[in-house]
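EI: anyone free to look at a 154-residue chain?
SC: sure, send it
EI:
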Amino acid sequence: MKYFIRAVKYFIYFILLFVAIMAILILTGAAEGDISTMFRGGYSALWKIAVIFAVISAIYPSVGFIRKEAMIPGSWEEDKDIIKEFMTGRGYVLETEGTGAMSFRKKGLSRFTRMYEDRIILTAKIGGVEMEGMRKDVIRLAMGLESRFRREEQ
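SC: here you go
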């Protein structure tokens, strides 16, 4: 269900972005305000554009979100305070904390730009933590967390 909701969000996002770009082009005079002259094929091109957006929206959640393990030494209880400090330093706020798991959300305007899909979930694993969220954020945070703990060891 989460996958479907993400796909719908991205479809709506693409449509709104398309409408905004077209509005800017019309307001600046770069394009006429008539759809039949704006696109080759006129109004029939709109459903083709919508189909392309739907296909991209259906594929993107499988590519844009991942789970990755960050190898960190020590137990969850020893490391969770350092993890909280690390995430706070990166602009995240603790949302929930349970036994062996924590959830963080981005603070500020960046939540809106990420369509409120900014949650990072950390789960305790043997030899580290598993991180789940947007691909670019998870990779960046996992590498930073591993680097932080390597410095702590030295």
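EI: The helical segments are 2-27, 35-38, 44-64, 76-89, 110-113, 135-153.
SC: 👍
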